Amino acid sequence: MNRLSLIKVGGKIVEGHDSLRYLLQDFASLNGYKLLVHGGGRSATELAAKLGVESRMVNGRRVTDADMLQIVTMVYGGLVNKNIVAGLQALNVNALGLTGADLNLIRSRRRAVKDVDYGLVGDVEEVDAAALGELVRKNIVPVVAPITHDCAGQLLNTNADTVAGELARALAGSFDVELVFCFEKKGVLLDEADDESVIRELDRRTFADYVERGIIQGGMIPKLENAFAAIDAGVKRVVITRASELLTSNGTVIQ
Amino acid sequence: MNRLSLIKVGGKIVEGHDSLRYLLQDFASLNGYKLLVHGGGRSATELAAKLGVESRMVNGRRVTDADMLQIVTMVYGGLVNKNIVAGLQALNVNALGLTGADLNLIRSRRRAVKDVDYGLVGDVEEVDAAALGELVRKNIVPVVAPITHDCAGQLLNTNADTVAGELARALAGSFDVELVFCFEKKGVLLDEADDESVIRELDRRTFADYVERGIIQGGMIPKLENAFAAIDAGVKRVVITRASELLTSNGTVIQ
Known about the structure:
Two copies of one chain form a homodimer.
Chain A: E1 3-9, H1 11-15, H2 17-29, E2 33-38, H3 41-50, E3 56-58, E4 61-63, H4 66-90, E5 95-98, E6 106-110, E7 122-127, H5 129-137, E8 141-144, E9 147-149, E10 155-157, H6 160-171, E11 176-183, E12 201-202, H7 204-212, H8 220-232, E13 237-242, E14 252-254
Parallel strand pairs in A: 1-2, 1-11, 2-8, 5-8, 11-13, 12-14
Antiparallel strand pairs in A: 3-4, 6-7, 9-10, 13-14
């Protein structure tokens, strides 16, 4: 099977002019098939504040009412996505900006209300891996914004890490997928205060142990659960690292 | 050659909830290959006002500074485009939202400053008709936002009528293109005060005569010049009508 690099980059990187430029240069020089999933939460929060719309987060996830959905559709689907696409085209990468509604690529269901009503947030139900794979094989590089749809006309906000994980799992049947989550640190840290204390390799047993001992906590836990779920679904390799290590693939390797 | 319906719809239609719903139903029931180009100027103006960004129009065209480019990228490329895509997907139309940067489809050059500095506005230089045609032949329905790019990473704002005209001309080599401009009236009117005074057919000679006599004026003149340019470039038929006449194709026929 052909290799596919599936890169997820967070808001901080794609929203800074210089950091975005470096990221796109590195991404452009990656060999082989590739796909980018991006966030944009900071710009969404900033625009919301300017428009007087309150940003409410629960467990690190954004509560999305109708006004907030308009904002994330504008920021993720428009501003961030199209600037990345134009930047990649300038580097001769044939980028195509997509949401889950485009080509019906990512179908989701509005999250049921349990303890929290997240509003217009979608849990992924199905990914059209065949359609995505067909694009990729033509050397088209999908740039995916974390917006999905319910097939009944409703756009839904979906966590970008989740979108990346679901795409990786869906594509694992037809490509050797390497999934790279880029964030601010060099990897998962043994000691939050020491940026050099990167855990080089992490298996499920060690992960459980570190969570119990409080070494791994907060938002890193769902990110890693996502990573292990991807490995279980046949993704070859998951790396958690910072954007500047995109070409080296150094960081925390999940297996 | 296969027929292709290329529909351009203005802001007023795509920005109203009900008018958009009717439009998408009619568009979905059009037979054969099709493509939609949309505007979104009213929403852009509205968002700009909320953000304290001044909307400045010269000769009916929007002056686009860096702030305004962000706004139109969000509104045209994100909000309006993705809502249309999700609405069409709900009607089993395999819509794909695009700007000119995606797949490098519409390359433009920043307009040179003569009397007016329009700012980040692009004049279309080249359309990738082969790539667009390939999508269309797979029964993918492109939904095109009026944003182009200069191939050097800069998005540029481009008039939606112009985008529709340029796409029609580019596709005329491989499809029998019918180009339909939808706006608020039933067609070009002989008497602005009488909505029923639709000019059924208009050729270049009559057009010149009507312009001279002041019967046709204002924003209708560039729209019609666009239409005649499309006919000259091999587009089979150009119709100017209102959205509710999409299925009948009644209105003013340019030939």
